[in-house]
Amino acid sequence: MSGIFLVSLALIALSILWVPTYSMVLMLKGMGVPEAGAGLRLILPLQLLATIALVLLANALGLGNPAAYTLAILVLVSATGVVIVWRRRHNGA
């Protein structure tokens, strides 16, 4: 595969992974939640590591259709990041 294609796939994957979480932070800042983005330094890299680990695990288990399980993992880990950011606004931790 060409390099530009792989870079494009990586950018699309990172967009699917991180844009919803960052959008939730922007929404919370708009609602006046103080320090809504305080946990982004921890959440974003953990999302990336969890995605890589789950994709490698699915590959090791021999699941079929790698594109489908990679996309499903990206969406679910992204949704989990949104939920974590949303719940952190309540307890301020």
From TrEMBL:
Keywords: Membrane, Transmembrane, Transmembrane helix
Domain of life: Bacteria
Name of this chain's protein: Uncharacterized protein
Transmembrane domains' residue ranges: 6-28, 40-61, 67-86
Native source organism of the sequence: Rhodanobacter glycinis
